[in-house]
Design a protein that fits this description.
Layout lengths: L2 E4 L4 H23 L6 H20 L4 E5 L2 E5 L4 E5 L3 E6 L8 E7 L4 E7 L3 E7 L6 E5 L3 E4 L4 H12 L1
Parallel strand pairs: 8-10
Antiparallel strand pairs: 1-2, 2-3, 3-4, 5-9, 6-7, 7-8, 9-10
């Protein structure tokens, strides 16, 4: 049986995504409407790079989470990130889990909060998040993962049920 949970967006994710998307598309417009049309460096800097950033971020956005066969599937656009739950030690709802985190590598709010993070509470962890206030902390033997499903308590119940 496969259980699917949506990944709701927090207001801050909506705001960051909107502002940064408008900024990137504005840069593209400036690049197309002004400057030297035949200068490859201009086109790359003002058109290609902003579009690559935007499209890559869309591609890596998080749509939801599916749980099946002791595996968590972080649903992206057109593909899934698979996380084996075989070594799951604990699963807890913690709305403060991502608080005061330092992003080491990843995305800080353009379509998701995802990548490698650190804070004093969790240490090093991986986030696949869209609403940090709905955080679920999955502690596996070799790593810690934070996800943000629509119904965190129900998600924890399903994860613990399927991984036992």
């Amino acid at each position: 049986m496969k259980e699917v949970f949506k990944a709701p967006w927090t207001i801050s994710l909506i705001a960051i995504t909107t502002v940064v998307s408008v900024l990137l598309l504005g840069i593209v417009l400036v690049g197309l409407l002004t400057g030297p049309r035949y200068d490859i460096a201009w086109i790359v800097a003002m058109v290609v790079i902003p579009l690559v950033i935007l499209l890559t971020s869309v591609f890596f956005s998080i749509r939801g989470y599916a749980i099946a066969d002791k595996t968590l599937y972080v649903q992206r656009i057109g593909w899934n990130t698979k996380i084996d739950l075989e070594n799951l030690m604990t699963a807890d709802v913690d709305p403060q889990a991502m608080r005061n985190s330092l992003r080491k590598w990843g995305n800080g709010g353009l379509f998701s909060f995802s990548g490698k993070f650190y804070n004093r509470k969790l240490g090093n962890y991986e986030a696949y998040a869209t609403d940090p206030h709905k955080a679920v902390v999955l502690k596996l033997r070799d790593r810690t993962i934070v996800v943000t499903p629509e119904y965190p308590e129900r998600f924890v119940t399903q994860v613990l049920l399927i991984s036992s």
